[in-house]
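User: Fold this; tokens only.

Assistant: Input:
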Amino acid sequence: RDHNPFGFSMWLAGAGIKGGTVYGATDDYGYKAVKNVVTVHDLHATVLHLLGIDHKQLTYRFSGRDIRLTDVYGDVITKILT
């Protein structure tokens, strides 16, 4: 498949991730995620959770404003955790 931000595969291993887990699905053409859509904010929230960091408390200052890496949309994907 070509580079497609709307439906892609990612491999995660160890660190509290369930082995052999398939999470989500794309349409018949692999163009768009249609089931259990995960955003980059969700992925970041999950990785930070596995590192023991509360993604809602982690901020960085940019242009005089405190910004969360996971924005206001990130949620930990608990269904893939052991």
